[in-house]
Amino acid sequence: MDNNNVFEQEFTVLSYLSDCNSKLAPHYLLLMMQEVAWGHVEKHHIGWSYLAEKNQFWALIRLHVQIERMPEWNETIKLRTWGKNPEGISHFRDHEMVDKDGNIIMCSTSTWVVLDFTNGRPQRLEDYPTYLYTNNQRDAIEEHVPKIKKITMPENGLLYKPVVFSDIDVNQHVNNSKYLQFALDAFPIDYVKTHRLTEFFINFNHQAKEGDDYSVYSQEIAPNNFTSVICLKERNTEVAIISTKWNLIC
């Protein structure tokens, strides 16, 4: 559904989308958000199909998500998205998740750019239809996603894993949802069973691809507030920085 340039889809949290607490797993939340974003731009003829003909693709570079609660296994929700006024090469997009009673249980804002497939450089999307943002001035989160403060990485002792087949998406790089999954999988399972993710920020700095080896290093910078860095071995590159905030499950 697309009313007033707000695009909406309905999802049910199936068993394979649920985590060990019978809630929607956070990385699947990102896949749902990606799906409605793609659906919106595809409907308006500036999506994957259109950009692929120009050797370009949409890339998510920054994300901020606030979670009131995660939907439960078998729960049906609506996820809506809309574009906001771009600035230069940066395109801004908000999301809201709504339960059956109309309560907003998740909101987010994000920054996207169009990249060239061959050289990875940002491109201007000159024919971006202005009506996609001029008819909707509401903010799910008003502020643009900030830059996450860096942490000091250890000089050695990092354990690396290879990028595998299931990490790669249609754009031939690691899907944005995977970076959050990498970071959360590095937490002790007892911690994620007893704590609830309430907010997270992600800065996507580079692309991880087939043949790369990555490592995750996390540091608690305040009680239940962590910064996780995902870095590559061969290129010595920090591909993503993720800030997560948690509450103890009562």
How are the SSEs placed, and which strands pair?
Layout: E1 2-3, E2 6-12, H1 26-43, H2 48-53, E3 56-67, E4 76-87, E5 90-98, E6 104-116, E7 122-123, H3 131-134, E8 161-162, H4 176-185, H5 189-194, E9 195-204, E10 213-222, E11 225-232, E12 238-248
Antiparallel strand pairs: 1-2, 2-4, 3-6, 3-9, 4-5, 5-6, 6-7, 8-10, 9-12, 10-11, 11-12
Helix pairs in contact: 1-4
Please provide a brief summary of the model.
It is built from five helices and twelve strands.
Shape label: globular
The portion of residues assigned to helices is: 10-25%
CATH class of the largest domain, named Alpha Beta
Mean pLDDT level: 92
- Indicate the structural class: alpha+beta
Tell me the number of structural domains. Answer: 2
Rg of Cα set: 18 Å
CATH fold naming of the largest domain: Thiol Ester Dehydrase, Chain A
| Strand and helix order | EEHHEEEEEHEHHEEEE
The CATH homology group name of the largest domain: Hotdog Thioesterase
* Proportion in β-strands: 35-45%
Per DSSP, the total helix count is 5
The beta-strand count equals 12
Can you tell me the CATH architecture of the largest domain?
A: Roll
Query: What is the straight-line distance between the termini?
Result: 37 Å
The stretches of 5 or more residues where confidence is low (pLDDT under 50) are none
Major beta sheet summary: 12 strands, antiparallel
